[in-house]
Structures are given as C-alpha cells and as structure tokens.
Specification:
Strand order of the largest sheet: 14-13-12-11-7-10-9-8-15
CATH topology of the largest domain: Dihydrodipicolinate Reductase, domain 2
Radius of gyration: 20 Å
Low-confidence stretches: 1-28
Order of helices and strands: HEHEHEEHEHEHEHHEEEEEEEHHE
Largest sheet: 9 strands, mixed
CATH class of the largest domain: Alpha Beta
Helix content: 25-40%
Number of domains: 2
Bound molecules: nicotinamide-adenine-dinucleotide
Shape: globular
Distance between the termini: 25 Å
CATH superfamily of the largest domain: Dihydrodipicolinate Reductase, domain 2
CATH architecture of the largest domain: 2-Layer Sandwich
Amino acid sequence: MDSRRDFLQKFSLGLGVTALAGLPAVAHDINPVSNADKQLRVAILGLGGYANIVAKGMKDCKIAKLTGIITGTPSKIPEWKKKYNIEDKNVYSYDNMHEIKNNPDIDLIYVITPNSLHHKHVLMAAAAGKHVICEKPMADNAKQAREMIAACDKAGVKLYIGYRLHFEPHTKELIRMRKAGEFGKVMHVNNYAGFKIGDPKQWRLRKALAGGGAMMDVGVYSLNGARYCTGEEPIWVTAQESKTDKVKFAEVDETVTFQLGSPGGMIANCGCTYNFNHVEGLKLMGEKGWAEMNPAFGYGPIRGNTHLGPINQPDVTHQAYQMDGIAECILDNKPDPNVSGLEGLKDMIVVDAIYESIRKDGKKIFINKA
Ligand code: NAD
C-alpha cells in the first residue's frame, strides 16, 4: 500500500491528522516516465550551496542523472555546463522553465532555493508537468504544503521532500529495528540539531525568504527524526524560544526547544539552534532497549549505537542514495520511504503548532484532536 493511501486509510480510521481532512482521497494518475535506458533525468532549480553538493553527489548515481539546470543567474551557467555536461537545450531560466514541458530530457525538477520560494517553485515545476523534489523545509506553513500537494496531484506528478536520511543506511537500520520491535515501545526521544550561523545578512536570517529560523532549517531534522524514531504522529506540542541576540535574530527564531506528545504517551524532547555549535544527536529510549546516533543528521558519516551494539552500516554519499532511491520509486513504481509531500505536510503541521505554542508562551497546542 502506498504511503499516501496508507495514511488516508489511517485517517479514515480516526488515527490520522485531523488537519489533513481537506485532501482529495484518491491521487490522480501519475505521469509515467518512459525511457528505454531506465534513467531518471533531473534538472536542478536554484544553483546555490546545496545544489552543488547534490550535483556532485549525483556523479555516484546509477539511475538518476543530472541533465538540466534552471537558474536566475546566467553567470553560473558556463561552469555548471562544463562540470556536469549539461547541454544547451537543457538550460532554463525561471522565465522560460514552463517550456520544460516539451523537453523529454527532463523527468524531474529538484527545487533547491530558499525556503519561502519552495511553494512558488514547486507549483511552477508541477505546471511544467514534471515530477518534483522539494528541499526541506517543505514550505513556510502547512497551508502552502497542502497547495503544493494539490498542485502536483492535479498535474499527475509525484512530489518528494529532500529528506536524505531516509535513504541513509544507519538511519534505515534504526527504523528497521524500531519496526521490528527491538526497542519495544518507544517511551522517550531526545533530538537536537544546530550550529552557530555566520553572516548576519544571509537569507536564512530574513523571514521573507527563510519562513523562520533554526526551527525551519535544522529543527525539521529533530522533528522528522522524532517521527521516524517512534512511527507515531504527535497529538500535542509545547515549545519555547530563547533569543539571546535580539539584533541578529530580529526576524527569525534563534534557539527553539519543543516537546511532542504521542497518543501512546511517548514524549519527545527536541531542540535546535542557530547560535551555538556541537548541537547534534538523536536518542531513543524504549521499554526493551535504546539507540543513540551522533552524528545523526549531517552529511555523514552517521554513527549509531544501540543496546545490542553499534549500528554497522556502510558510509555512503547521502545525495546519491537519495536520488537513486527516488528514481527507483518513480521508475519501478515502488512505495516511497516516507519522503512524500504528505510526510513534508505532516512535519509542517507540527511546525505550525510549534510556532503557535511559542507565540502563546509555551501553551500546549493540540494538533490531532477531532
Ligand atoms: P544557498 O543560498 O546556497 O542557495 C540558494 C540558491 O537559490 C542560490 O542559487 C540563489 O541564487 C537561488 N535563489 C533564487 N532566488 C533567490 C532569492 N530570491 N534570494 C536568494 N536566493 C535565491 O542556499 P542552500 O544552502 O543551497 O539552501 C537552499 C535550500 O536547500 C534550503 O531550503 C535549505 O534548507 C536546503 N538545504 C538542504 C540540505 C539538506 O541536507 N537536505 C542542506 C542544505 C540546504
């Protein structure tokens, strides 16, 4: 059963997120990718820091291939063309990207622009009739996330979020162990992610482009990690922000702590920051066992330990595994491993509740209650 239908079925059984009730129950038919050489051909939209890491990582891909670019900065084109063998006919600007519709060399558009542009760029990619990957955080809020899902559904294209850790072997093993019951019932989770941010002029500190601060950027790792540590959707949230530098963080959150409560009584205590280093780690405590990962969220190597011993898995290029993993989902119609637009939406619903709790001085916000 695909994750969308699975989720909607749970929803109809009363176990899902009430806030998702407005979504159509049946997805439209998905545009097939038909190419004899079984490759997923990808165009990257937004050629900044992370796009470079993705493009470099994709050199290790077996079935995903970088074939195109979409950029608003023409000066970047020559270098990208040379480095990644991009043909002239696969180079687009934001103004002419609708023409990608007629380009059989591009099956998917990967949106890697500042957070608050994801909504607009995913809608443009869907309108071009191509499958989409959108970087995290999915959007500024759950409303935008729903619109992105609806637009992709209507266009018959798949939407994925760049949650690369779901393809990373140590993280996959942790999730497998949790599902196999190795930890018993998960009782508590403790996840932290963050770093000291530099340049005070960068877009990550401007609300209009970032949507929020540490919570939007790295808090989503703590949050998504809490969801994959437990396999449960939170039913309530409390959250607090501490702001020690009111000038640098005038527009966005600096350090956020948040707590998530699950229907089964599990509480996750999580945090994120933009104002100190060495903030990283995931800890799961269950009735029968435990797991710790540190590093847990970076580009690797990821390291994990459990009550049964170390998690021994290969160190891989996250971006290559993510891109081949998503290519397999599309080309072989495989179920996606919790990186669909719906997974992004579930995170955005919690993010909305976290910001609401912060605005209300830490008030408990119920998100799953009918
Ligand atoms: P960046 O600043 O290095 O790159 C942003 C790109 O967007 C640039 O090429 C810039 O030219 C382009 N852009 C288009 N319109 C713009 C505008 N109006 N203002 C500013 N830039 C504009 O940022 P980045 O680090 O590459 O982050 C991009 C996205 O990728 C973010 O959403 C971020 O959260 C995500 N990201 C994900 C990971 C991950 O591990 N999954 C890692 C880093 C970043």
